[in-house]
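Technical note accompanying the year-one report. For the benefit of new consortium partners, we illustrate the data format agreed upon in the data management plan: each record pairs a sequence with a structure-token string. No post-processing was applied to the example shown here.
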Amino acid sequence: MPKIKLHGYSEDAQDIQILNLLYDIVEIHQHETLDDIFLNSQFDIPVVSFQVFLNNKDGILNYLSESPRNRLVLLHLLEGIHTTFFSDLGLDQYLETQQVSIITSSDSDYYNSVNIDNFLSLVGENKVNWAVSANHFENVFDKSLKTHNFLFLNKVNRSHRKQLINWFNTRGLLKDALWSDISAGITIADNDAVDFFTPDGRKQIIDLIGHEPSWPDGWLFPDLYTKTYFSVVTETFFDNPNIFITEKTYKPMMMGHPFIITSSAGFYQKLNDRGYKTFDGLIDESFDKIRDNDKRLLAIADAVADLVNSDLDLFLKNARPICEYNREHFFKEFGLYPLTTYNKLATFIKNICPN
């Protein structure tokens, strides 16, 4: 069977490497200009990153509008699919007609896309994280090390994060939390802990392991987990029907830390479908079924408050078997990642091949 020809942009060399996994199925040609890519689009498949699309939006939209046979594969590896966002960019009609297909890191019931779950790979392949998870897992359950009730990290300014911060502050929960709000200039260091996300703060891990993180957001910094009873994770999306799982969720999984996750309705169901366990019975997780965003966020805030006001030492003891299971399941999923990604990408590319 002849290989499927894909035509990519030289600026996307790093992103398009994911398709090298299909070397016996696809033949990748890289070009210096977008015009060269689209010259080959009648019979082959042009592939560009989302950043290249943003930088050349008008030209690419014109190309798509010229003929319903003109197609494009969009590499959206580090983001999820948000229907409103794509509609605002003028892509919605081309996604609906499947002129545009997406390789992404989230699920979608609306568009022709494939979820390669890139954040599982990014967190799991970090050998520093392996060492931290192995060496500090037992310390997660040592109550003598606890200095704060929960870990609550926030970076980019998003409305659900601001609302949750305000609710926690109103209820007096932040005074005993290890938390940050980087968009407001509040760092971990402001809340009685080393700021591991700065070069000086990374030193204890760098001295141990021997290299500096290029993406500290994806690193496991052990004190954040050993000093707290559980994580309150504020995921990227809160109002998106397409479930998007990022490093924010995978880090407590890999560390074996209990969690309450603030995200779209059905997020917990997706984790369960993937084989992970959550803490229903120890935490009221009924919020996962609430479709109304305001009511769901309030229910999450209530769940955190209820847990803080409970016996946290007993909670941690009872949560340990679930944490152990999730940690092992994470490593199993990561070990299977190349095979599952190959299978998903191969099916996706074959389905959109014009031959």
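Partners are asked to follow this layout when depositing records. The two ends are 11 Å apart (CA to CA).
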